């Protein structure tokens, strides 16, 4: 007999989401009588979707684009991470009927960098490409919260960066926070001052995309993390490996944000190996 749906990812669109295939084996392994499904929810309909899930006895859900802000506004309580990152990606429907909003994206990125490069964000000077986007801002906030000694923010639309930089310094422990545009000279100069480069732009999703920074900016001592995981080797990661830099893709961030979400629902760690294996299968 099939298991009752009691967990889901909501988004719009959502059919591409890897979360169901990542979470189901972990649920099965932990002996949880629940299936994890994808639910397409139109913008403006998140409250309605939450009420329905609560009525149907859901444990919680994940929230993806474009609902991370809308979901946050509906929560009765937010974790410190959700407050700091200004969005929720994981929801817990509590037995008393209240809704708790978490954000595991920042912790997921942090764990990914630790496992992939053996370094903590607190010891790295970091350049974030696309820091004005949703993922980029969350990553920048996490870097500052963990005490990264220097954070360089770059974004095509540079106007987005000034308020973000001010927020990072005033509210999230940002030390040396520098904003820059996407011109060749600024990117080469900033890259020469950092250890870790993170691509949080959408450049690299398509094979025809240009690199998010000039190839001359890449150095053999760099660690280069691309938040994109499909394709697994973006043009940026290929160029970075060619100069001898260490590289990793966004699959590890996806995996660890999912593992932290599982912990938020059940208070136990999931079987990471099974989740990872499931993510590698298409
Ligand atoms: P978003 O909010 O739409 O932000 C997109 C970012 O990309 C913005 O900074 C945008 O700059 C920049 N950008 C878009 N087209 C560009 C171009 N042609 N040239 C230069 N910059 C460009 O999207 P998001 O949700 O933050 O996602 C960003 C990336 O992170 C996506 O590739 C997504 O797959 C990835 N991601 C991965 C994970 C994971 O778990 N691994 C989680 C979340 C997101 P402007 O501000 O100028 O528009």
The hetero molecules present are:
NADP nicotinamide-adenine-dinucleotide phosphate
**Helicity range:** 25-40%
Biggest sheet overview: 6 strands, mixed
Number of helices: 11
In whole angstroms, the N-to-C terminal distance is 25 Å
Radius of gyration, CA atoms, in whole angstroms: 19 Å
Mean pLDDT: 96
Broad structural category = alpha/beta
* Cross-sheet strand order for the largest sheet: 2-1-3-5-6-4
Fraction in beta strands: 15-25%
Order of helices and strands: EHEHEHEHEEHEHEHEHEEHEHH
Low-confidence stretches: none
Enzyme class: oxidoreductase
Family: Belongs to the shikimate dehydrogenase family.
Domain Shikimate dehydrogenase substrate binding N-terminal: 9-91
Subunit structure: Homodimer.
Output the keywords.
six-stranded parallel β-sheet, binds NADP nicotinamide-adenine-dinucleotide phosphate, alpha/beta, single chain, six-stranded mixed β-sheet, 282 residues
């Amino acid at each position: 007999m099939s298991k009752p749906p009691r967990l889901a990812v909501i988004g719009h669109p959502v059919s591409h989401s890897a979360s169901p295939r990542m979470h189901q084996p972990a649920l099965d392994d932990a002996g949880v009588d629940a299936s994890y499904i994808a639910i397409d929810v139109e913008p403006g309909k998140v409250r309605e979707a939450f009420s329905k899930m609560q009525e149907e006895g859901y444990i919680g859900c994940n929230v993806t684009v474009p609902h991370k802000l809308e979901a946050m506004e509906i929560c009765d309580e937010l974790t410190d991470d959700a407050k700091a990152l200004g969005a929720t990606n994981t929801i817990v429907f509590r037995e008393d009927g209240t809704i708790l909003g978490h954000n595991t994206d920042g912790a997921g990125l942090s764990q990914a960098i630790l496992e992939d490069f053996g370094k903590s964000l607190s010891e790295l000077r970091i350049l974030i490409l696309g820091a004005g986007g949703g993922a980029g801002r969350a990553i920048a906030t996490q870097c500052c919260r963990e005490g990264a000694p220097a954070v360089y923010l770059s974004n095509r639309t540079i106007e987005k960066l000034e308020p973000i930089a001010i927020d990072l310094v005033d509210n999230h422990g940002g030390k040396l926070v520098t904003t820059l545009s996407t011109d060749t000279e600024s990117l080469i100069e900033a890259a020469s001052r950092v250890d870790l480069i993170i691509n949080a732009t959408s450049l690299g999703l398509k094979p025809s995309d240009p690199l998010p920074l000039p190839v001359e900016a890449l150095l053999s001592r760099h660690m280069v993390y691309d938040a994109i995981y499909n394709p697994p080797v973006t043009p940026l990661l290929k160029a970075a490996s060619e100069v001898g830099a260490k590289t990793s893709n966004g699959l590890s961030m996806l995996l660890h944000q999912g593992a932290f979400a599982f912990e938020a629902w059940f208070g136990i760690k999931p079987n990471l190996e099974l989740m990872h294996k499931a993510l590698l299968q298409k």
